[in-house]
Each structure stands twice: as structure tokens, then as C-alpha cells.
Write a structure and sequence with these properties.
single chain, about 425 residues, alpha+beta, Heat Shock Protein 90, 14 helices, 5 strands, about 60% helix, about 10% strand, ATP-binding, kinase, nucleotide-binding
Length: about 425
């Protein structure tokens, strides 16, 4: 077993350039934890490491990273120079020992260029070397900041325990306030606390930025999805009604070749008008999508239900319309625009389904719209079933329009029910109408 939690076989494979694998991943022992916390990333064929084992490329340091690392090096070096007079040094230290001590501080500053790959190992090494040197405060501050900013709080806490471990021992010795070593030690520990606190702040701010970006991305994706659904509902509701009229009259002409010239002319006129209206509706929708800043196209209201029923009667359908909705007055508020538009779309889809899935174009269809301010609005469409209606109550080929209607009703604050009741297919919706 090697020192860093990887056995000799894996080490030999790594040096030979072979993939490093382990049946259970990283070992859970203390050395394995140390390796994970240190964040070792090596190239395959050079050293064994997690990134090499997974075949991940090592990300090179960019210009910004180099600038930050050089800034950290200069900060630690300037701190070493500026604090040289404030550090308590044993008067009996020789010049050679002092020079070696200062050289050690310089090497520690240079070692900060390794803090991105081995932040924990670097911080631990500097903390262990601190009792033997007087000029490691600057590099230790940078190393602790890096650990706090880039590693989980649990790892930061372990390193902080190592950093502040000598403090209780120092305080237990009841140091004198007049002793210069007391001020030097307290200043040292205060600076370490500031470095760790600043690193934790930077880490939390980075996490906040990442979470905000993720939330913004999710919100943008949700907005795009809702926009696509709105477009799909609008195009289905607008075009399905027109195209179903075309289908009915085209089928009548196909299966009734002996129709009189007058009947053929009326059917052709309806086909022409429906096709023209479908093209106009499609052009309006595309125009709104291309230039939404010019305003939305005119939306249907509840009063347009009568026109909708008239178009279906012109196509040969037997529509019975009952509208029991009071007109808006000074004391009675009108139907809200969203509720009226939703009711119109429900009636439109109900008539379309009756033509597509009913027993025939002349089958009776009843449409009932009732409501009052403060009581809500109800919409009910009934049409007879086909002779071979499905036993499970579903309409062959249907589904998308009803899904869109349920979404519309839900967005308006209402509910929608549909299904066979034995003889008729019933579409029933309740919508709010505040008082």
C-alpha cells in the first residue's frame, strides 16, 4: 500500500501509461481522504491520479489564473518584507540562521504557485513548518484562503483545527501582555482567521453566482417551453376549426358526385372562405411571432361564440346554442377577457371534435354557456356518439386539443371534464367569474 492510498500495482500501471482502475474507487482511509482533499490531478503516464484514471484532460492555467497567482506571490512576498521588523526574533539567532529563515519564507512564497493543484497539502506543509520559521505568515494566509475558497467546509474546518491548534496551548501558558511574543502570536492568529473568513465568503459568493446562473438558465428554458406550448395551443385552436370545415365539405363533394350545381357552389364557397380565413389566421399568428412589439392580434371574446356557431351551421351542422350570460352593465361587470377567450376556445374545440369524431355532419350538437358575476361561467358541449364508439370513452385520434384545453382552463383558474356519458360525448368546463 502506497502512502497516498494507491497500491503498487496501480502505481506501476500509471508509470507505464496504462489506465489506473480500482474496483471500489478511492479508498476510504485517511490517506485516501487526504488525496481527495488535496485535489491531485496528474497526467496519464506521469503520475497516478483521479483525473488520469478517468481520462480527463488537465486544464491549463489561463492568463487570469496566472495573474492571480502572481498577485498572491507578490502579496506574500511584500507581507514578508513589511513584517520583518514586526516579527519577534530570538536575539540569539545568528545571521546565517536568520538568512536561512528568510530564504525559507521566500521559498514558501514561490510554493504558492502550486496552491491550485495541492491547496490542502501546501497549507498543511506550511502550517507544520511554521514553528521552525518566522516568515511564513504571508504564505500561510494565502494557502488558507485558497483552501477555504476552493474546498468543502469540512476540509476547511480540518485545516483550521490544525492552524489554530497551538492557540489554546499558547493561552494556557498565561503569556504576559508586555511580552512582544504575545502581540506577535495574537496578530498571527487574527490574520489566519481573517484569511479563512475571506475565503469562505469568496466560496459562498461563487456558489451564489453559480446557483443564480442555473436558475436563470432554468427560467429561460421554462419560458421557451411555455412559449412553444402557447404557440402550439393557438395554432391548433385556430387552424383545426377551419381545416375541419374544409374536410367536411370536401368529403361531402367526394361522396356525393350527383349533387346539384347549387349545392356544389355553396360547398365550394364554404371551402374557399374557410381556406381564406385559415390563411388569414395563420398570417396573423406568424406576424405576431415576427414582430411582437407591434402588439398582439385581436383575440376572440365570449360574444364571438355566436359567430362560431353560425359558421358551423353554414357548414351543415345542426347546432343548438344557448347563451345565458348577462351583458356587462354598471352594476354587473362583464366576463373577464381571459375567461371569455378560454370559453370561446373550448366551444371551438368542442365543435371541431364533433365534426371530426361525431356520427356525421348533420348530427345535433348542443352548446350551453351559462354564468353570472360572482357565480362563475360554465360551458357544456354535447354531441352523439358514433355507432361504434370506443368502450373506454376515448376519441380516436384526439388528445392534443383536449390537453391544450385543460391547460387553458387551468391557467384561467377553472377545470375541464370530458368523456362519454352513455349516449353523448360531453365536454364540460367551469371558469371563474369574480363578482
Amino acid at each position: 500500500m502506497g502512502l497516498l492510498g494507491i497500491d503498487d500495482t496501480e502505481r506501476r500501471n500509471s508509470r507505464a501509461g496504462w489506465p489506473v482502475s480500482h474496483p471500489t474507487g478511492w479508498r476510504r482511509g485517511p490517506t485516501g481522504w487526504l488525496r481527495r482533499a488535496a485535489g491531485l490531478v496528474h497526467r496519464t503516464g506521469e503520475r497516478a491520479g483521479a483525473g488520469a484514471a478517468r481520462g480527463e484532460p488537465v486544464r491549463r492555467r489561463g492568463a487570469r489564473e496566472w495573474a492571480v497567482d502572481i498577485g498572491a506571490f507578490l502579496f506574500a512576498g511584500c507581507f514578508l518584507v513589511l513584517s520583518a521588523d514586526a516579527v519577534f526574533i530570538d536575539p540569539g539567532m545568528s545571521r546565517t540562521a536568520l538568512l536561512l529563515d528568510q530564504l525559507t519564507g521566500g521559498l514558501a512564497c514561490a510554493a504558492l504557485f502550486l496552491r491550485r493543484r495541492w491547496p490542502v497539502l501546501l497549507a498543511v506543509a506550511l502550517l507544520l513548518a511554521e514553528p521552525f520559521s518566522h516568515f511564513l505568515a504571508g504564505p500561510i494566509m494565502v494557502a488558507l484562503f485558497t483552501v477555504a475558497a476552493s474546498r468543502p467546509p469540512r476540509v476547511t474546518a480540518c485545516v483550521a483545527v490544525l492552524a489554530f491548534g497551538p492557540l489554546p496551548v499558547f493561552l494556557a501558558g498565561a503569556p504576559s501582555s508586555d511580552d512582544p511574543r504575545t502581540a506577535s502570536a495574537l496578530t498571527y492568529f487574527a490574520l489566519l482567521a481573517c484569511a479563512i473568513g475571506w475565503g469562505l465568503y469568496v466560496r459562498s459568493r461563487r456558489q451564489l453566482v453559480v446557483s443564480l446562473r442555473e436558475r436563470a438558465a432554468r427560467a429561460a428554458a421554462e419560458a421557451r417551453r411555455e412559449a412553444r406550448e402557447d404557440i402550439a395551443r393557438e395554432m391548433h385552436d385556430v387552424l383545426a376549426h377551419r381545416l375541419s370545415l374544409l374536410s367536411v365539405h370536401a368529403g361531402a363533394l367526394e361522396f356525393n358526385p350527383g349533387a346539384s350545381a347549387d349545392q356544389v357552389g355553396r360547398a365550394a364557397a364554404v371551402i374557399r372562405d374557410s381556406a381564406h380565413q385559415a390563411l388569414e389566421d395563420l398570417r396573423e399568428i406568424i406576424g405576431v411571432l415576427r414582430a411582437p412589439e407591434e402588439g398582439d392580434r385581436p383575440q376572440p371574446v365570449l360574444a364571438d361564440v355566436e359567430r362560431l356557431a353560425a359558421e358551423s351551421r353554414q357548414a351543415g351542422a345542426r347546432i343548438t346554442l344557448e347563451m345565458d350570460v348577462p351583458d356587462g352593465t354598471e352594476t354587473v361587470p362583464p366576463v373577464p377577457a381571459v375567461v371569455g377567450r378560454t370559453a370561446y376556445r373550448i366551444v371551438q374545440e368542442g365543435l371541431t371534435n364533433a365534426r371530426k369524431h361525431g356520427p356525421g355532419p348533420e348530427a345535433p350538437v348542443s352548446v350551453t354557456v351559462r354564468g353570472a358575476s360572482g357565480q362563475g361561467l360554465t360551458v357544456e358541449i354535447r354531441n352523439p356518439a358514433r355507432p361504434a364508439a370506443p368502450a373506454d370513452g376515448t376519441i380516436p385520434g384526439a388528445g392534443q386539443g383536449l390537453i391544450g384545453l385543460k391547460e387553458r382552463a387551468s391557467l384561467a383558474g377553472g377545470t375541464l371534464e370530458h368523456g362519454w356519458d352513455g349516449t353523448d360525448y360531453r365536454l364540460y368546463a367551469t371558469l371563474p367569474w369574480p363578482g
